[in-house]
Structure formats: C-alpha cells, structure tokens
SUMF1/EgtB/PvdO family nonheme iron enzyme (Hymenobacter montanus), 315 residues
Amino acid sequence: MPEFGRRPIFNDYVALTYRVPSARDTSLVVRKKWRELKSVPQVLPLGMPGSILLTKDGWAIDEAEVPNIEWKRYQQRLAAAGGNVAATQLDPSALPVPDYFSNVFYDYYPVVGVSYEQVVAFCKWRGKIISYMINRDKKLGSADSLAASYIVVESRLPTEAEWEQAALVKRGLPYGSKYISAPIQINPEAASYFKQRSGTEAEASQIRADIKAYNDSQPSRSFINYNQAEPYFLRLPTPAYVYGGPTNDYGLYNLLGNVAEMIQERGITKGGSYRDPLTACTVISRNPYSGPSPTVGFRCVIRATQPNRGYTPKR
C-alpha cells in the first residue's frame, strides 16, 4: 500500500534550537542487556516511536507521544484486513483545528480526539502487529508459536506509577529535572513553517524579520509546551511536534506539556497540555479526563518476552 506523504516544509527540530546544559543525570535509567531481560522493546515497525527501557522486568515506554501518522497506519492496516475502521475514527469536534488529522503537516503531531476505549483497542492491536513483524524476521523471532525464539509483545497504557517513574518523580523535583528552560534560536529560513504552525496571517517576510529581531534579544524559553507567553509566530493553536525540544534525562520527549496523557487509571491524565498553565504540568499533577479532547493524547508501554524459553513441545 502507498506510504503517507512527507511534510513539505521544515521539521520542528530544524526550526527551533535550544542550547541546553550538556550534563545529564542518567542514574535512574535502567540499563540492561537483552540476555538479562529476555526483551526486545527497541524493535518497532516503521513510524512508531522508539522506546526507552523503564523497569527491570523489561517494560519500556514510548520516547514520544503516539503521532497522527501512527494512527493513520493503524487505520490503513485495519482496512486492509477487513477490520472495523469506523470504530477508530477521531471525534471531529475534539480536534484543535479542522484539518489536524487529515493534513500531512501534522503527521508527527500527537493524535488527539480519541476515546479511552479507542486507545485501549489500539494498544492491544499494536502488541499483536509488532509481534507479527518481529516473528516474521528469522533473525529475531520465529513464526512458529511453539518455538523457543517466538516473541510475544504486550502493549498497553502506563499505570500512573509507571508514568511518574518515567517523569523522574523519585527526584522530588516539580518537573523531574533542574532545567525547564534554555536559550533558544529560531531559524529565520523557517518563516513559512512558522506561518503554518502558528496560523498567523502575517506574511513570511514579516515573520522572518521578526524572528531575526527575536533572536537578537537572546531569548530563553521553556521547553515544556504549556500556555506560556510567546511571540505571535511561536503561538500554537494545536499541540506541537512529538519529537520537539530537549528530552528529559530518560530520553523522553514532551512527557510534560504538549498533550496531557492517558494512563490506565480511567478519568485521569498526566503531564498537562499546551493549553494548561505550568502548574498543571508537574510530575505529580493530575487532570480529569471524560472523553475525546484536543488536549489529550497518549503513549504506550511495551514489553517483549520469549515465553517458550526452556519449554520443549511434545511431538
């Protein structure tokens, strides 16, 4: 089937550059090898976020929020298999702008406008499709479900405790890290990108001149995407690029801000969103969730195991 189109102009990470402190405290990051964990969480189909190992029993968490393009691929695969695509449709009244899901410009922005039930179904499907893709590769697994090398992948929403672990709650810092802002430079050549991203009616030439003036002021900006004071060309009517800005010390993007994230505990989201004040984007803050929203998305946790190791099937 045909691949989805590429976004036609600048990527966010090329347009905005943060100068962050180089020191990273990785003392809480789990560092184990495959043979110790019997897990291969890093093996994911094209387009899906990578994952960061979180627990000693092999659970990993997506490095970024699940983007629109992954949900599109989900729908595409369901359609090809004769599945119920209608049940996966986003709520159009819960999108930040009307073309948020259909426009390729937003392909790598977080999927929103989905229900808890839709996300749970997606997670289950995702585990099955990753299992299939891994086991069809003879170097990794086996198509024989009784083989010792057969790999089973589980995928689900994180629990609140897992989400807070990923947000470095053990440090006792409101935002998990000492730094939440840094000097920033904006690429003037990305003026057209910022015009579309912000929805401003200003001409690209005016935006380019204003970006240069902004850079001359040696600005510093929070890399948590919350409702902060911005020059007009940085204001967002939508969430932002899922891989935008610096990561936390686990290597996770946008765990705080951008979109509030669903967890297993129903009716609760974590991390706050682009429309929230900074005080709602702390490690321990909770926000209510009652249905599809332009401010709520998700990321998955995932684990891959080989349940047949040590088992010899009867012949």
